[in-house]
Prior knowledge:
Number of strands: 9
CATH superfamily: Metal-dependent hydrolases
Order of helices and strands: EHEHEEHEHEHEHEHEHH
Shape: globular
Largest sheet: 6 strands, parallel
Strand content: 15-25%
Number of domains: 1
CATH class: Alpha Beta
Radius of gyration: 16 Å
CATH topology: TIM Barrel
Amino acid sequence: MIIDADCHISPTPEGGNSIKTEELLARMDRAGVDKALTWLQPPYLRETDEANTYVARAMKNHPDRILGFGWADPNLGVEKARASVRRCLEEYGLFGVKLNGAQNHFYIDDPNLSLPVIEEIARHETILAFHVGADAFDRTHPFRVAKIARQYPDLPILMVHMGGVGHQDVTEAAIEFAAQCPNLTLIGSAVRTGAILKAVRTLGAGRVCFGSDTPFELMHVELARYRAMLEGEVSEEEKALILGRNIARLFGLGG
Length: 255
């Protein structure tokens, strides 16, 4: 089973790269990807409700292909973000909720802004995802993720981009902190090949996942890059973990 662990869709145009559900499915078919972990394409400091609903509808219409994930922005109001978490998890049945301190402009461990939303996610015993990128390395730094991981050791946390993206690469820190916190899993999307391989060698194949960052990258190209990268470096069993089985296990899908 091949699962792309970083895909975005949007019901509205969000720059030149936004795609709708049908285009995502077409890209999955072209790449030979079975399922896609799918969240909204950030509308930045605007409402997220419409896009979360769109992701939920995509999962409902294509439950065998789309693994829907929610999104909460505490800058729109902490209580509103907590309500969004509840809607995503209780009403829509999404697999978890993502916070993006880079594009939504907040420190992910802010005790007044972010932590109350994280507490709501943890209360639902689900999965939390963070954008962890060098495009806002201070607001989303891996040491901030590690603080949260230690506070909620039973909460599975996905580190999307594992500290890559942008000029100030912090992938070394992402790997180091993930080694200290077993509830952290790295999604290697929009990140250098060498960093992904180091994460696999340091943490093991069970802690690293393939992601394409669709539509910002081409899914079939990114999957080909992963296959070339892993060839001769890991066993077939380990390759299967990275390319899909890790996400399947975390999401309770079997396989």
